[in-house]
Amino acid sequence: MTPAHFTFSSAFILGLAGLAFHRTHLLSALLCLEGMMLSLFIAMSLWTLQLDATAFSPSPMLLLAFSACEASAGLALLVATARTHGTDRLQSLNLLQC
């Protein structure tokens, strides 16, 4: 495994661990998701450059577009949650009280 592959794999694993263990605020969960998507974007970009495959060249841009849509939906949910509940703590959210 090259150092670049190790770096992006460890960045993805750290984002996944942060998402799994630090679930106190919605904003920290969204930041962990963004870190995971950014490491996937960079890894996929390097993968297409190393293979010299022109057929896979739109894939990183498509992933980046989906990541931007995910970030905007997450921020909209964060604002809606902060307005209705007054906080972004995930323990205060109860799905049974819609």
UniProtKB/TrEMBL annotation:
It comes from the Eukaryota. Core subunit of the mitochondrial membrane respiratory chain NADH dehydrogenase (Complex I) which catalyzes electron transfer from NADH through the respiratory chain, using ubiquinone as an electron acceptor. Part of the enzyme membrane arm which is embedded in the lipid bilayer and involved in proton translocation. It is a multi-pass membrane protein. GO terms for cellular component: mitochondrial inner membrane; NADH dehydrogenase complex; respiratory chain complex; transmembrane transporter complex. Pfam families: Oxidored_q2. The chain crosses the membrane at residues 6-22, 29-49, 61-82. Belongs to the complex I subunit 4L family. The keyword Nucleus does not apply. This is NADH-ubiquinone oxidoreductase chain 4L. It catalyses: a ubiquinone + NADH + 5 H(+)(in) = a ubiquinol + NAD(+) + 4 H(+)(out). Keywords: Electron transport, Membrane, Mitochondrion, Mitochondrion inner membrane, NAD, Respiratory chain, Translocase, Transmembrane, Transmembrane helix, Transport, Ubiquinone. It comes from Pygoplites diacanthus. Its EC number is 7.1.1.2. The lineage of its organism: Eukaryota, Metazoa, Chordata, Craniata, Vertebrata.
